[in-house]
Amino acid sequence: MNFFKKIFSSEKKETLDKGLEKTKTSFFGKLTKAIAGKSKVDDEVLDNLEEILISSDVGVNTTIKIIERIEKRVAADKYLGTAELNQILRDEISALLAETNSGNETDFSIPTGKKPYVIMVVGVNGVGKTTTIGKLASQLKAAGYSVVLGAADTFRAAAIDQLQIWADRVGVPLVKQNMGSDPASVAFDTLTSAVAQNADVVIIDTAGRLHNKVNLMNELSKVKRVMQKVVSDAPHDVMLVLDGSTGQNAFEQAKQFTAATEVTSLAVTKLDGTAKGGVVIGISDQFQIPVRYIGVGEGINDLQVFNKFEFVDSFFK
């Protein structure tokens, strides 16, 4: 634990521990019952573990991977006690997360050499997309970056108004047009303004409609093309925001959006209010997209940079 204390502030670690409490309590409560009276990891224990992982929204495919890895260790060690199961699970989940997430990030930062660094945020309505943008803008500003927001979700007046509230609260400029305006036009104006201001980061909100994948694909493609007239390689990051409390529905949303556009990072919100935190593990593994941020509370500072070491430590603490 000294390793974690050296890297992560005690306040941040405490928030993450608390945010994952429901998931941890649910998961280990089920696991304790499953291995009660058992001293050896056998087929029955593995069957029960598989059921627990799936019911914790880790996902079927990822669960199968974890079980297969444990089966190999059982075969290699000949005898594996249930007392060792927690450590084995910890090792295997860490290994899975390591395949997609570098795990070294501890602070809010952006890659060097891209100015402005353009983040296009996608996700369905209600997942906490606009709130995530506001919190991210706050954290980046606190880290010393100049940030410009763009309200390209022009299909809902509430989305524009909500983003304006966040922009005012954080103290960053917002570029917007009237409801019903062309989203690509808003994105163009936002990047033009950011370049003129020599801003470090641009965060563009987009519409969260999934009822027609073809329309969504066309719309996001158009927004990208228009942005590239101002910044040739924009966007540098297409971030999909998912509501962790929706469990399997988050998997479906990830499937739809990754089919509609190239998603390069994930932000998983509302982990503090759910026992479905396993969805972070499953989605990261299944879609091979790094989780960049997680939401573990309602406070403005409760959006955290995802760090696999910290996440696994809190989960198994």
Automatic annotation (TrEMBL):
GO terms for biological process: SRP-dependent cotranslational protein targeting to membrane. This is Signal recognition particle receptor FtsY. Belongs to the GTP-binding SRP family. FtsY subfamily. One of its GO terms (molecular function) is GTPase activity. GTP binds at residues 123-130, 205-209, 269-272. It is found in: Cell membrane; Cytoplasm. SUPFAM superfamilies: Domain of the SRP/SRP receptor G-proteins (SSF47364), P-loop containing nucleoside triphosphate hydrolases (SSF52540). Part of the signal recognition particle protein translocation system, which is composed of SRP and FtsY. It comes from Flavobacterium aurantiibacter. The lineage of its organism: Bacteria, Pseudomonadati, Bacteroidota, Flavobacteriia, Flavobacteriales.
